[in-house]
Amino acid sequence: MEKANTSTDFIKAINDQTRFKILKYLKQECCVTDVWQKLDISQNLASFHLKVLKDLGFVTAKKQGLKVIYCVDKKKIQKAINDLENKLL
Known about the structure:
Mean pLDDT: 90
Strand content: 15-25%
Largest sheet: 3 strands, antiparallel
Shape: globular
Number of domains: 1
Number of strands: 3
Low-confidence stretches: none
Order of helices and strands: HHEHHEEH
């Protein structure tokens, strides 16, 4: 999947309530275990949505030992919001 650069991709990403909650939770760095436990969803579902967000470019991931640490890419999200604002105004 190609990295997102548009407001349309951002809207598609946050249209799913679970992905929206994940983005809100990822203001701080955390691993998939933190996400699924915090949101009370299965590990598979958390991993799936994190992959979608990562593939779209709205979440970054880095390896720390055996864990993968995820964090929201604030610059990418701000770019998508600015793009949306420019299209609407």
